[in-house]
Amino acid sequence: KAGVTQTPRYLIKTRGQQVTLSCSPISGHRSVSWYQQTPGQGLQFLFEYFSETQRNKGNFPGRFSGRQFSNSRSEMNVSTLELGDSALYLCASRATPSTDTQYFGPGTRLTVL
Amino acid sequence: DQQVKQNSPSLSVQEGRISILNCDYTNSMFDYFLWYKKYPAEGPTFLISISSIKDKNEDGRFTVFLNKSAKHLSLHIVPSQPGDSAVYFCAARGGGGADGLTFGKGTHLIIQP
């Protein structure tokens, strides 16, 4: 079974731009969560989507948004990029929100200049 | 306020010996705990987990112990192998599976030959 895939793997943007990241969950998984990893803050939960609906949201500003499609693929968008948004963005999938274990993709490394 | 703490940023262990990685938490609502292993430029890989109703879970060379009264868990790796060198993250999930995972900052395990 293929794992979680994320595209692109690397991205360079400048301040003020916006960016969209994509995540395809493990086949059959319908829940997708997004996390941000930075050296200072570690791994932090952004939001979770299930059945095309956002279920939970972490403590991030409204510039961070996402959506989920009917095939469970998810996209994450960051608008008006700031230098501090430079991070590794990780996507994780699980069968449903009540499933205990989440499986992570390789991440998208975003650099904001 | 860090709800999941891994107080040792790094740990060096000789090959063949036991590696013990520790994790403390403050939120008594956490009901499920997971350990992930991460190599550079890759997403976290799920290792082992434990429900709050248990005090031990074993899977091959990996054993996780949970002490609810002390709000402490540990991951034991026996015997340690060179391929175990990685960053290990402790993660906790809130009650009902509704929340995203809360991660510790990680412990860099170095297995020395």
Overall description:
The complex is a heterodimer of chains A (113) and B (113). Chain A has 113 residues and is mainly β. In chain A, 0% of the residues lie in helices and 53% in strands. Chain A has strands spanning 5-7, 10-13, 19-24, 31-38, 42-50, 53-57, 64-68, 74-78, 87-94, 103-104, 108-112. In chain A, the strands form 2 sheets. In chain A, strands 2, 4, 5, 6, 9, 10 and 11 form a 7-stranded mixed sheet that branches. In chain A, strands 1-3-8-7 form a 4-stranded antiparallel sheet, with no helix packed on it. Chain A starts with a strand and ends with a strand. The model of chain A has no long low-confidence stretch (mean pLDDT 94). With 113 residues, chain B is mainly beta. In chain B, 0% of the residues lie in helices and 53% in strands. Chain B has no helices and 11 strands. Chain B has strands spanning 4-5, 10-14, 19-25, 32-38, 45-51, 56-59, 62-67, 72-77, 86-93, 102-103, 107-112. In chain B, strands 2, 4, 5, 9, 10 and 11 form a 6-stranded mixed sheet that branches. A 5-stranded antiparallel sheet of chain B has the order 1-3-8-7-6, with no helix packed on it. Chain B is globular, with a radius of gyration of 13 Å. In chain B, 35% of the residues are buried. Chain A binds chain B through residues 4, 6, 33, 35, 42-48, 55-56, 58, 90, 92, 97-107, 109, and chain B through 32, 34, 36, 41-46, 49, 51, 89, 91, 93, 96-106.
Summed up, the helix count of chain B is: 0
Instruction: Characterize the overall form of chain A.
Output: globular
Along the chain, the helix and strand elements of chain A come as EEEEEEEEEEE
Percentage of residues in strands of chain A: over 45%
Number of helices of chain A: 0
Main sheet overview of chain B = 6 strands, mixed
Q: How would you state the average pLDDT of chain A, rounded?
A: 94
Q: Which oligomeric state applies? A: heterodimer
* Cα shape of chain B: globular
Note the run of SSEs of chain B as H and E.
Answer: EEEEEEEEEEE
Arithmetic mean pLDDT of chain B: 93
Please report the total strand number of chain A as a whole number.
11
Q: Please report the two chains with the greatest interface, counting residues with C-beta closer than 8 angstroms to the partner's C-beta.
A: A-B, 28 and 25 residues
Helicity level of chain A: under 10%
Rounded to an integer in angstroms, the radius of gyration calculated over CA atoms of chain A is: 13 Å
Report, as a whole number of angstroms, the end-to-end distance of chain B: 38 Å
Structural class of chain B: mainly beta
* Poorly predicted tracts of residues of chain B: none
